[in-house]
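Could someone model glutamine with this protein?
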Amino acid sequence: MDIVVPMSTLHSPGRGRDRWQDTASAAGLLADDGSVAVTIFAEMSALAVRTGAINLGQGFPDVDGPEYVKQAAIAAIQEGRNQYAPGDGVPELRGAIAEHQKRHYGLDVDPATEVLVTTGATEALTASILALTRPGDEVLTLEPFYDSHAAAIGMSGATHVTAPLLPGPDGFRLDVDALRAAASPRLRMIVLNSPHNPTGTVLTRDELTAIATVARERDAIVVTDEVYEHLTFGAEHIPVATLPGMAERTLTISSSGKTFSLTGWKVGWVHGPSDLVTAVRTVKQFLTYTSGSPFQPAIAQALADDDTPRALAASLADRRDLLCSGLEAAGFTVTRPAGTYFVMADASGPLARLGLRDGVELCRRLPELAGVVAIPAAAFCRGGSPTAKALASHVRFTFVKSPDVITRAVERLARGLRTATP
Ligand code: PMP
Ligand code: GLN
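Reply:
Sure, complex below.
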């Protein structure tokens, strides 16, 4: 999948790197010879299509969200809601977002000045990071991290620093001492993600309190990616904005893609204090200005519905158990996720048996060995970092697939990895 970039046209001697190269490099997609790869999700989904393997890589559901939400979008198209929506989003969706935050978390959000509808959580994240950081600033994330967080930090020219989430008896947990050590006086922003992709960790109140303390001490802005807020299994999702003194420095981001199984609609949002939202709007209006006019009123309706996400979380808990026990039977060691639709599996056993180096090598060979696609944990780490080394043997599988697909995938893994020869 590598695309070789003709350096003569894009890179004259002495010019240094352009922003796109910083972006690619930050996401681990730029090789020393100047070639650039597409995202790991695109690469692995293409591999699945090419080989006919079952795709447990990219996280997207194989069953669409509710019929009534689809009908609401169709009705909006037929009613003529097909021209530009207001830049901030249609009023009924901004109102529904504010109402959702009040109902679930007790957060007071003014829909007129404190909410922005965006093109998925991705645009909200990138616009927030671009708006509020610059070269010389440090931006802290957990590691492993979702790829677009690193890419947006690279785009802004800020420096990415990390605090590890490492596996232990209680799942992947934050190393609070490492977090404190990573927070220098140059810290401008902390980008959080809970429930966390790829580990499935739901940060505890203690972990969030430690993060909030660092943010206040360093006077840092917190950008929190909560797209899996409703996809938890027994663990309580605590928005960091609900902690004392945090609402005034936090931008909270979510999206309808995960909650309502409509990832292709790309309706997301960000809310926070109006001065921070003004900064984000200023950038966002020149990225897309606005998008998804007929989808916005449909998501406004959906946000009043707590039954759909509740039922999705319950069915995901069963599918998590199905995938985890199947992976264990196939020789992996799994850390059971408390949220999201991903599980991290340590492949040390299969790697040793097959004489493979790491999770990257395993994921490249997995379609041929077992007819299954997964994502290596390395894709969520900085190349060569201590966390990347600690998680070198880990791979991520998604369980947002029908039970039948999961069952077939784990059977293939058990058979394929048992019969394969080094
Ligand atoms: N953040 C995380 C942690 C994700 O896993 C995803 C995956 N889709 C996104 C953001 C992107 O969300 P959206 O599709 O709404 O842009
Ligand atoms: N969030 C999805 C995942 O982690 C991928 C979305 C994308 O392809 N960028 O699998």
